[in-house]
Amino acid sequence: MSFFDKMKQGASDAAKKAQQTVEITKLKTQISLKEREIEKSCTYIGEAVFRSYANGDWKQAGKDIEGYCLHITGLRRDISVLEVKMKEIKNEKVCSCGKVVALDVRFCPTCGNPFEDERYFDEV
């Protein structure tokens, strides 16, 4: 491989890494915004509970709290999807024990859990 080929390869790798970093930063920003929205919803839940306590009307609080809880559940689901996308970009996956490993690993180095070979399922 010539000197210029190595330079081209290095520049290509750097550009790919920069693009990966930009995509991960965007996903982290989206996750952060959703986490702030969850915090606001939790605050609203607390306010609804206190308002109900002060007014002695627990029926309305139940409806409000249920709506906020459904909203939080949806946001958490969205965050999970974004985290999976981040792992895909980083070429990582998560074991059931919680350990983050490289995408091409067949067994978890922590617990020994075997991973299914996703390539097999893609080909079938």
From TrEMBL:
<protein>
    <submittedName>
        <fullName>Zinc ribbon domain-containing protein</fullName>
    </submittedName>
</protein>
